[in-house]
Design goal:
- The chain has about 375 residues and is of the alpha/beta class.
- Helix content is about 40%, strand content about 15%.
- Strands 1, 3, 4, 5, 6, 7, 8, 9, 10, 12 and 13 form an eleven-stranded mixed beta sheet that branches. A two-stranded parallel sheet has the order 2-11.
- The chain is globular and about 65 Å long.
- It starts with a helix and ends with a strand.
Length: about 375
Amino acid sequence: MLDKIAQIVKGILSISRLLRKNYHVPYKSKEMLNTESQKVLNAEREEVPKVESQEVLNAVIKTNEQQPNLTFLNERLLLTADAISLNIKTFGYEYARNLRKQLTIPSNLSPQKINLQSKACQQNDIQSDWFFYWCQEMKIPVAYHRKLWEFCYILQALYEYDLLIPGRKGLGFGCGEEPLPSILAAYDIAITATDLDPTASSAQGWIETKQNMSSLEKIFRPELCTKELFTKNVSLKYVDMNAIPAYLEGQYDFCWSACALEHLGSIKNGLLFIENSLKTLVPGGISIQTTEFNYLEEEETLDNNGTVLFRKKDFEQIAKKLTAAGHQVAPLDFNIGSCVLDKFIDIPPYYSQVHDIPQEAHLKLLIDRFASTSFGMIIIKAI
């Protein structure tokens, strides 16, 4: 496989060298390439046979003005890039699949407090007993998937702050069809599950992708909760997270959202929601929010978009503001981990016919052109 990749890269470099020689096409310098790639790219130093060079050049030159045929180049380069990307993705998924099969999950799991911080998703979390326990409670197989990490993170935070107790009240924002309302209802906790009105959601495609809650029946999980407890404890409200209604204020022991606040239109709106979520809580209540973390860029990011990506400085900004207002924020830990799957960035298509089990390695992923992972924040409302 490596020999094949080397041949493909050599071919691409041969074309780029011909273009630079004949048309002065700019290209990225070798200094921008990492050292691991250098061995493969040393193929560029090899002399391209004259016959091969002329064939490539003849294919590229098509117009009367002797300009390069960009359609030809795009087809060749993009198809090659797609093949390399798919191969790398397959290797990452296979690695994660084999790693998952080798996990030793204890049979006597119980919840444990770990001094959970506001933190980024890591491979080590997936391989921890606390994560195993909440997967077991949700009856979901352990997987290297950041969405599953978010659910487990929220449940772990609730346990750490002694909130999984009958009689508590919780408010979920943007619940979609997630399992949290059902599992929390099983603890005999009163849950108000909210989502955007289905009419508005349908226009955004949330219903088609099962990310919108159109009825309570959609989120009832009989394997997690009896119908009796669910009916007793779970109610549905349609709420715009950018305009939390006053009747929800001061009512709840905790609130949460799982990867919802990055869809509020802008980074500013997302940060404002985190702040406003505290209004729904009683003094000392807990707000637990998970969202997107653009972990490689300090400045450049996605903003004012359908999905926005928060940077380190955005989390620091809201933490500073909330602390100044008397609230407590669990210490921010931006360490994304150093294991293999912490360095593997999943790329589209996220669902592919090539992979029979979708998203085996999905802790980090590419959104637009930015590497992102999940980040969880825990805020304790001032007393």
